[in-house]
Amino acid sequence: MADKSEFSVSRRGVMIGGAATAMAAHSPAEAQPRKATMPPEPTTMPVTLKVNGKDRALSLDPRTTLLDTLREHLHLTGTKKGCDHGQCGACTVIVNGQRINSCLSLALQHDGDEITTIEGLGTPDRLHPMQAAFVKHDGYQCGYCTPGQICSAVGVLDEIKRGVPSHVQADITARPQATGAEMRERMSGNICRCGAYSNIAEAMTEVAGAKA
What is the crossing angle of helices 197-208 and 146-162, to 10°? Predict the structure, then answer.
């Protein structure tokens, strides 16, 4: 009969054996090869924009907004990113003669469109009449929201000139006039904490050639 001591196992021996088994089960040689999880290459699409009179050919991620295209790809930083939700108007630009919030629009939607930013309205040596009026009437706020305010103001006067109705008109079939109420209503999408709204209205009134 075999000696009982030949088959006795100490508690320490059991623990060492268990640890060795666990390590073998997870050794690199037996582990399943892991797949590399590299992000897919971004897909780009061509688009041509006519910005401030110049054709600009770009290849963009389809998700790129017009605002980011202007600022990040064309380095036209006059157009500002405010709320990025279409609520403050700081990113207003003029597309095919109509003002829009560029943060709410994808660049690919504007293939072939004509886009005017604050840099395209005038230059320091030759200001647009609206820019000059803003200077004269101290319509500049902190400066951050001002480019959007000016682009919007230019668009507002053009809307009135084209007879586009607004909510303040009692008769939407009548031709709108450049009154103070009309301009304030149309500028309500441009918001800035700095105020200066009355000065902006005075500047717009001067350019419109009408009394507020």
Answer: 40
